[in-house]
Give the backbone structure.
Amino acid sequence: MDVAGKTVLITGGASGFGATAARRLATQGAQVALVDRSADAVTALAEELGGLAVVGDVSDPDTASRMVAETEERFGRLDVAFLNAGVIGGQSACDDTFDLARYRAVVGVNLDAVVFGTCAVVPALRRAGGGQVVATASLAGLVAIPGDPVYTLTKHAVVGYVRSVGAQLAGDGIAVNAICPGFADTPLIAGQRSAFTDAGFPLLTADDVVDTVEAVLASGQSAQCWYIQPGRTSEPFRFRNVPGPRAGATTAAAPPDDVMRSAHGG
C-alpha cells in the first residue's frame, strides 16, 4: 500500500510500535493522527511530524468517536487505523492478588479500545471508499501465557474479533487484520528487559514490528493474524479448523450463512 497522501490514525502513538510506525509512515508521505493519554509525548511527536495529537483514554468510547472526528476535520479523510494501544496484565486470574480495577483497565485498553476503535473508524473508512484496520494483538493471542492470563485473555479476544469482523467487512473494501508480536523491546517490558537479556532471549525491535505492519497493509488480505518472531519472516498464522458436526456416519453440511450471522448460541 502506498501511504503517500493517505491519513493514518495510530492509537498508543506516543511510544513503542505506535511512535515508530508514525515516524516511518510520515517519511513516506502519510498524514498521521496520534492518540495517546500521555499529553506531552503525543503532542511533541505530532508537532515533529506535522500531524495531529489527540489526548485521551482509548478505553473510553467517547475518545474513539472524538479521534475520528478530529482526524477527518484536520485531514478530510481516514484511510488506515492502527489500533495499537496496549498494557500488560501483571496479575494472576484467580488468587488473592486479583485486582478488579486493574482487570477492568487491562480489558479496557487491550480489548475494548479495539472494539470501540473499529466501530468508530469503519464509517470514516467507508466515506473514504475503503481502507484498512490493523490491531495489535500478540503471540499471547495465539498461545497460552500462564504468567499473565488476563493479558492472554484480551489478546485471544482481539484475534477472534479481527478474524470475524475482517470477514464481515471484506465486501465493503475494508480490511481488518492483526499483528501478533512476540516479546519486543518496548516500554511495556522495561521492568523485565534485563531478565530477557541475561537469559540470551532475543527481543523484537519496534522496527521489526512496523515492518510487518507495512507487509499487512501491502498484502490485500483481511481477517488474518500475522505472527512476528525474531529471525523469522512474518506471515499469517494458519489456524486449524475444528471438526464439524456429524449426522450419523456422514459429516454434516456447514450451517447457512444467515444462520451463522445471526447465531448467538454455543
Notes: Residues 100-127 form the longest helix (28 residues). The chain has a mean pLDDT of 91. The chain is about 40% helix and 15% strand. Strands lie at 7-11, 31-36, 52-55, 80-83, 131-136, 174-181, 225-228, 235-236, 246-247, 250-251.
